[in-house]
Amino acid sequence: MVRILEEGVGGIASLVSPSALARRSGAVSIDTAYRLLGRPDDVLARIAGTGVDPNFRSEVLGWRTTDEISAEAIGEYAAPDAPMDPTAAIRQLLVAGLADPAFPLSRIMRAVAITASPAWAGRVIVADEHRAVAQEVRDAARREWEHTREHLRWLVQESLAAVGRRPIEGYTIDKIVVILHTIAEGALDRLVLHPEAVSVDEFVEAILIFMLALTEDGAMADPRLPDDPEALAAFTRVVAAADAAWAAGVDLDDLHAVAERVGVSFETVVLMFPRLADLADSVLRTRIVAAGIEGGTPDTTAALLRGTLRRLAGAADAIPAVVERVRTGAGSLSVLHELQVVAAGLAADAAVEDGTAARVAEQAIATACLGTDHWATTEVLLDLLIASPSDRASG
User: Fold this and answer.
1) How far is CA 211 from CA 115, 119, 154, 164, 290, in A?
2) Residue 352 to residues 197, 280, 357, 387, 392, Cα–Cα distance (Å)
3) How far is 298 from 385, CA to CA, in rounded Å?
4) How far is Cα of residue 222 from the mean position of the Cα atoms in its chain?
5) Alpha helices of the chain — where are they, by DSSP H?
6) What CA–CA distances, in Å, run from 388 to 49, 74, 76, 309?
7) Residue 374 has pLDDT above 50, yes or no
8) pLDDT tens digits for range 245-286
9) Which of 10, 57, 74, 337 has its Cβ near the most Cβ atoms within 10 Å?
10) How far, in Å, CA of 318 to CA of 100, rounded?
């Protein structure tokens, strides 16, 4: 046991030594292999770096790029013939992990580098001669996490936006992503070792339960949010009451009516929302972009935008007066303006002609504001803006 803990890195390095690889390939001499590849530790460090490259792919291994796996999950999430369902995307990512060679390789690499971590408090540590390469392997695993977080952040954002929730105090989107990803990794281990114990669907449900436990009702992507916890609670209460009133068909035509309905002073309401259009914008934000729309890669941002516009169309059906107030009165601070900027940015990535992107983006947002009856037209406009992952790859 001591030998494994001390020499695990060296043992793995011996499997990929230039001499071992030369014999396996039968194509080059051992001398040539050493001249090209260097020492066994050098080869292991190179493999660790290649394995965490999000653009690495191998037909022989069945190794797909991170974009390909993420795009497949997005396809499950944003299927054109079904409602947006983050649960389907989470399930797809778990199922994909069970066939992804990066899953066992990353486990092996991390395991042999554990005893080189400064956080490791065990008595037995990695042998001195392997410490440098163990550190390189560990650093590669940390880079892998950064890539993974970028591709998972959109899913957490979208899931929270779908239910109008934000992280509770002390938590951020990124911290929630870390926790949920840790649960998902443990789920993969358990599904491989004890597939009869818990099903994929039960793990998906558990992930969603944890997500809800770490969040609360309300938006986090709102420029009007106060920093003071007491003021934030009042802000959330006003937005929720206004949403309920507008959804019930109550005509909240001025801020005095809002203050009376919520049971707070008029002065408090005015400090948070100088105009009724500001309150309408905060209500709409909670419904469609509770956790923001910064997806990272073009693929994930496109998925977030599509889901957001679908919720916008639903809001136009449910609270048309709110959408109209935001469209005509909220100005450059409005969530609709922010969505136009995001859409136009995606159009630039997709190489839409200069001068066209902003107009098509504006039209896509405006059409979504007309409701779900016009969703087919909205999707056509989105397709003009956003190149598909395969289009982007072939381009």
Assistant:
1) 32, 27, 14, 12, 14
2) 50, 32, 6, 9, 12
3) 11
4) 19
5) 2-15, 18-25, 30-37, 40-51, 66-77, 86-97, 102-113, 131-163, 173-193, 200-213, 229-247, 255-262, 266-272, 276-288, 298-318, 320-329, 335-349, 357-368, 375-385, 389-394
6) 28, 11, 14, 17
7) yes
8) 999 998 888 899 889 888 888 999 999 999 999 999 999 998
9) 74
10) 42
At 166, is the pLDDT very low, low, confident or very high (cuts 50, 70, 90)? confident
Q: Can you tell me the distance from the alpha carbon of 105 to that of 112, in angstroms, rounded to the nearest whole number?
A: 11
CA distance 140 to 46: 10
Hey, what amino acid is at 374? H
pLDDT, mean of residues 23-36: 90
Does residue 386 carry a pLDDT above 80?
Answer: no
b/e string for 172-190 if b means 16 or more Cβ within 10 A?
ebeebbebbbeebeebbee
Tokens matching residue 324: 């109209």
Q: What is the pLDDT of residue 383?
A: 84
Q: Burial code of 332-356, b = ≥16 C-beta within 10 A, e = fewer?
A: eebbbbbbbebbbbbbebbebeeee
Least reliable range by pLDDT among 224-228, 235-239, 316-320: 224-228
Q: What is the mean pLDDT of residues 171-198?
A: 91
- For residues 289 and 219, is the Cβ–Cβ distance under 8 A? yes
pLDDT reported for residue 389: 39
- What's 1's DSSP letter? -
